[in-house]
Specification:
membrane; Rossmann fold; 22 strands; binds adenosine-5'-triphosphate; Sugar ABC transporter ATP-binding protein; 6-stranded mixed beta sheet; alpha/beta
């Protein structure tokens, strides 16, 4: 029974005046959020570090707040753990998809609920059919016995959503669910979100992608510096008013738009990276590329098309079966990151936590780690070296200078991504490989990163960029290589193509 206030039923969820401090950082100062009923999509938005994940952590039982109230249907609650939150019908699907890869789809869907424990008396077939029921509710066509390791990222995410539904979640939190999905996968996720909404589930959705959030949102809450600064129906906002609310000021003019193509790279410009006949068994077939000085080339394609594998092989982080490589006309044989860096190649990997950053070190140390101009070793340089460059790059990406001494693990996800990119902007390698360079960064920081990447290209670096966002490739690149099942199926000059052509080619359809 929900509580009735002034003749009205209390809202399904209300957070009022929520505060949370981590050491010296006041992550939440006065966070408020209201969801009146089920059957709505509520978008939470704010700059990197504004407190979104902390707020979701409070709501999902992962973080204990210091002050303020959280109430469900008028009753104050304080969750001591995610399990306690789940018991109240609040479930979260986090950015880092948490599935057990060796268990089956059905086992994952029922994980944590006890149904798969045989000693508990529940049969395999009963478990399987329960899981099947939830998968049908999601219209998710997958074999319940298939090991999760065989699924694509979007399918794994669906398994997590199914798990939340098994727990009878009334409030489902999706924290940046689209950040590792390609455009077509986002479409199917949105179909699922709409289906759940029609079934009465309230969905809290975090995204930095402006266009898609207007597509899906009923209501929006904006956080700035730990404070809720705006809330209302999606129709009451425009992209511009949202950015103004996030920033607390009018957005700077002319940051986005304008492709780097206008800078012009001609066939006379020297080739910085030449790749011929690259083969990575099971992933890449006969990949060829001449990447010129000052050029920005994009890689487009579906998940599994071989895009990341191309970058990883060039950097020597992954083996290859065939292929030759040249850097500035000289032969180069990839063999581990250290050799690549010594040859003037930089790499921003897709998984910043595992490969891109040393989380135990400070932001400053991470940013200067590869700025060892002659020595190929990855080592933190002497204190103070390159300080001016680091300060300039940090400022250009809106990284607070006070963060320099902060442990990188303590940064918000988007700010970690900025550091992963910034360390190469400090170094300015001759060839920079970037895998999803703006994953999880806010809309302003994305424009800042693009601007800085254009600047290092204009200064002579050659960039190869993998992105699942076609818009990003069209904004940033001179040309785009479209990959399908390991092969390049098109090499398109950016002014002469558009997202629908790229999408078709990426799906294996001829244009
Ligand atoms: N465990 C922690 N220890 C110290 N500081 C933290 C911790 N978690 C978060 N913070 C700090 O709290 C602030 C808010 O971080 P939070 O992750 O909530 O931001 P966010 O809005 O989710 O950012 P993003 O969009 O980048 O994911 C940041 O300054 C962050 O550095």
């Amino acid at each position: 029974m929900s509580v009735v206030v002034d003749g009205h039923p209390a809202p399904l969820l209300r957070l009022e005046g929520v505060q949370k401090t981590f050491g010296p950082t006041r992550a939440l100062k006065d966070a408020n959020l209201t969801i009146p009923t089920g059957g709505v999509v509520h978008v939470l938005i704010g700059e990197n570090g504004s407190g979104k994940s902390t707020l979701l952590g409070v709501l999902s039982g992962q973080i204990r707040h210091d002050a303020g109230t959280v109430s469900l249907e008028g009753r104050p609650v304080r969750f001591g753990s995610p399990v306690a939150a789940l018991r109240h019908g609040v479930a979260m699907v986090s950015q880092e998809i948490a599935v057990a890869p060796d268990l089956s789809v059905a086992e994952n869907v029922l994980l944590g609920r006890g149904q798969v424990r045989r000693w508990a008396g529940i049969s395999r077939s009963a478990s399987r059919s329960k899981a099947q029921g939830v998968l049908e509710r999601l219209d998710f066509d997958v074999d319940p016995d298939c090991p999760v390791r065989r699924l694509r990222p979007d399918q794994r995410q669906m398994v997590e959503i199914a798990r939340a539904l098994t727990a009878e979640a009334r409030i489902l939190i999706l924290d940046e669910p689209t950040s590792s999905l390609t455009d077509d996968e986002v479409g199917s996720l949105f179909a699922t979100v709409r289906r759940l909404k029609a079934q009465g589930v309230a969905i809290i959705f975090v995204s930095h992608r402006m266009q898609e959030l207007f597509e899906i949102a009923d209501d929006i809450t904006v956080l700035r510096d730990g404070v809720t600064v705006a809330e209302g129906s999606a129709a009451s906002f425009t992209p511009e008013s949202l950015v103004s609310a996030m920033l607390g000021e009018d957005p700077p003019a002319g940051r986005e738009g304008g492709s780097a193509a206008s800078a012009g790279v001609g066939s006379d410009d020297p080739v910085a990276l030449r790749v011929s006949g690259l083969v990575v068994p099971g992933s890449v077939e006969d990949f060829r590329l001449d990447l010129r000085r000052g050029e920005i080339v994009g890689l487009a394609g579906l998940v599994g098309a071989g895009r990341s594998e191309v970058l990883e092989s060039i950097f020597g982080a992954r083996g290859h079966a065939a292929g030759t490589f040249e850097i500035h006309g000289k032969p180069y044989v990839p063999h581990g990151p250290r050799r690549a860096i010594a040859h003037g190649i930089g790499f921003v990997p897709a998984d910043r936590k595992a490969d891109g950053l040393v989380l135990g070190m400070s932001v400053g140390a991470n940013m200067t780690m590869v700025d060892t101009h002659d020595a190929p070793r990855l080592a933190p340089p002497a204190r103070g070296r390159g300080a001016a460059t680091v300060a300039r790059v940090a400022a250009s990406l809106r990284l607070n200078p006070q963060l320099a001494e902060t442990g990188t693990a303590r940064l918000s996800g988007g700010n970690q991504q900025k550091v992963a990119v910034a360390k190469w902007l400090v170094r300015r390698p001759g060839v920079l490989l970037l895998d999803e360079p703006t994953r999880g960064v806010d809309v302003m920081a994305k424009a800042d990163i693009h601007q800085e990447l254009r600047a290092i290209a204009a200064a002579g670096s050659a960039l190869l960029v993998n992105s699942s966002e076609i818009d990003e490739l069209l904004t940033l690149c001179h040309r785009v290589l479209v990959m399908f099942r390991g092969r390049v199926v098109a090499d398109l000059a950016v002014p002469d193509t558009d997202d629908s052509e790229i999408l078709k080619l990426a799906g294996g359809q001829p244009c």
